[in-house]
Amino acid sequence: MNTDDPILGALKDSGDCLEGSLKHNGKDVPISMDADGAQVAELISLARDVATRLGAIDADARRCASDKLLDVYNDSWRSYIEVGDDGKNREVSGTILDSTAFREGLSLASVSVLGSGVVTLYYHDGGMFAGHSVMVESFEGTDFSDASTQLFG
């Protein structure tokens, strides 16, 4: 069953969750919503809050990702060994990034809302972590001040 929400737009019920798309910085960003035992009204309320505040939430999540992963990138992922066309190994070193460059290197890939309080933003890594996604998750709804950040995939 599909439905149209005044804030979230067209939503598709896939059986386990509701799926839709949010406009953010001129792009469509997929959103999935799973009640996970919560009341659907609570889920929709949180999803609407995410949709209306996505710019600020995205900025907070990027800041959190930078705080927790910038040093990991600069110290461990920036340099790596690559096999050249001649079959020889060579060290490749990327640019040392500051917080602004790190945050700008991320691009929002999708948003997930679980129950009445879990919001997760997934980011493409911009090549910083060999294609792994960056996952920033708040267990406090749209408050990302103490969010969990990790590499995924």
Account of the 3D structure:
- This protein has 153 residues and is of the alpha+beta class.
- 29% of the residues lie in helices and 39% in strands.
- It has helices at 40-52, 54-77, 99-105, and strands at 2-5, 9-13, 18-24, 27-34, 79-83, 89-93, 107-114, 118-124, 133-138, 148-152.
- An eight-stranded mixed sheet has the order 1-2-3-4-7-8-9-10, with helices on one face. It has a two-stranded antiparallel sheet with strand order 5-6.
- Strand 1 and strand 2 form a beta hairpin.
Q: What is this structure, in a nutshell?
A:
The protein is 29% helix and 39% strand.
Instruction: Count every beta strand, where a strand is a DSSP E run of 2 or more residues.
Output: 10
Rg, rounded, reads: 18 Å
Q: Extract low-pLDDT stretches.
A: none
Q: Taking strands numbered 1, 2, ... along the chain, how are they ordered across the largest sheet?
A: 1-2-3-4-7-8-9-10
Structural class: alpha+beta
| Ends apart, CA distance between termini | 31 Å
Instruction: Give the helix level as a range of percent.
Output: 25-40%
Mean pLDDT: 95
Q: Judging from the principal axes of the Cα atoms, what is the shape?
A: elongated
Total of DSSP H or I helical runs spanning 4+ residues: 3
The biggest sheet, with number of strands, parallel, antiparallel or mixed sense and barrel status, is: 8 strands, mixed
Query: What portion of the residues fall into strands of 2 or more residues?
Result: 35-45%
How do the helices and strands follow one another from N- to C-terminus?
EEEEHHEEHEEEE
